[in-house]
């Protein structure tokens, strides 16, 4: 019996308070050792901090930050003729969103000092303002794409 591939797309559940899938995805990436309730507590503290600091709807700030971090194109390393080439590839919406969430959490983990809720809220606010480590990561990817634009023709040569 073949077990290759997925038959249907996996559905993400909605979070209990905001009824939003993006929050659930973010909580699943924050979660360590299966502690989902702790991940949701951290996220709700993040939203309280954003509300205090910006006086805006925290869900709006989250969407704006994720939208600004999400890449349209990325590079993939392929070995051709003994050399590793970085080939620019377009990224789908969900894959781009997952990259944005991963970069956001990596950037918040690199910040020093405070609790995870404070670090993540600061990073979300910075990303919504188009500054911060996660935005810098996206800009670095775009620089790599510009440097390796020559290899676009190798996209299908695998």
Automatic annotation (TrEMBL):
<dbReference type="InterPro" id="IPR000235">
    <property type="entry name" value="Ribosomal_uS7"/>
</dbReference>
<dbReference type="GO" id="GO:0006412">
    <property type="term" value="P:translation"/>
</dbReference>
<dbReference type="GO" id="GO:0015935">
    <property type="term" value="C:small ribosomal subunit"/>
</dbReference>
<keyword id="KW-0689">Ribosomal protein</keyword>
<dbReference type="InterPro" id="IPR005717">
    <property type="entry name" value="Ribosomal_uS7_bac/org-type"/>
</dbReference>
<protein>
    <recommendedName>
        <fullName>30S ribosomal protein S7, chloroplastic</fullName>
    </recommendedName>
</protein>
<dbReference type="GO" id="GO:0003735">
    <property type="term" value="F:structural constituent of ribosome"/>
</dbReference>
<comment type="similarity">
    <text>Belongs to the universal ribosomal protein uS7 family.</text>
</comment>
<comment type="function">
    <text>One of the primary rRNA binding proteins, it binds directly to 16S rRNA where it nucleates assembly of the head domain of the 30S subunit.</text>
</comment>
<dbReference type="InterPro" id="IPR023798">
    <property type="entry name" value="Ribosomal_uS7_dom"/>
</dbReference>
<keyword id="KW-0934">Plastid</keyword>
<feature type="domain" description="Small ribosomal subunit protein uS7">
    <location>
        <begin position="3"/>
        <end position="149"/>
    </location>
</feature>
<keyword id="KW-0699">rRNA-binding</keyword>
<keyword id="KW-0687">Ribonucleoprotein</keyword>
<dbReference type="GO" id="GO:0019843">
    <property type="term" value="F:rRNA binding"/>
</dbReference>
<dbReference type="InterPro" id="IPR036823">
    <property type="entry name" value="Ribosomal_uS7_dom_sf"/>
</dbReference>
<keyword id="KW-0694">RNA-binding</keyword>
<dbReference type="Pfam" id="PF00177">
    <property type="entry name" value="Ribosomal_S7"/>
</dbReference>
């Amino acid at each position: 019996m073949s077990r290759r591939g997925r038959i249907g797309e996996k559905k993400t559940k909605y979070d209990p308070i905001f009824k939003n899938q993006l929050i659930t995805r973010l909580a699943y990436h924050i979660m360590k050792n299966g502690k989902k309730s702790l991940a949701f507590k951290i996220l709700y503290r993040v939203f309280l901090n954003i509300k205090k600091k910006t006086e805006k709807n925290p869900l709006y700030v989250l969407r704006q930050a994720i939208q600004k971090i999400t890449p349209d194109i990325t590079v993939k390393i392929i070995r051709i003729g003994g050399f590793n080439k970085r080939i620019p590839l377009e990224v789908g919406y969900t894959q781009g969103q997952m990259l944005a969430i991963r970069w956001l959490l990596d950037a918040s983990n690199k910040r020093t000092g405070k609790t995870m809720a404070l670090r993540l809220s600061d990073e979300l606010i910075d990303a919504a303002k188009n500054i911060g480590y996660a935005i810098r990561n996206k800009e670095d990817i775009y620089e790599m794409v510009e440097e390796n634009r020559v290899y676009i023709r190798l996209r299908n040569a695998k």
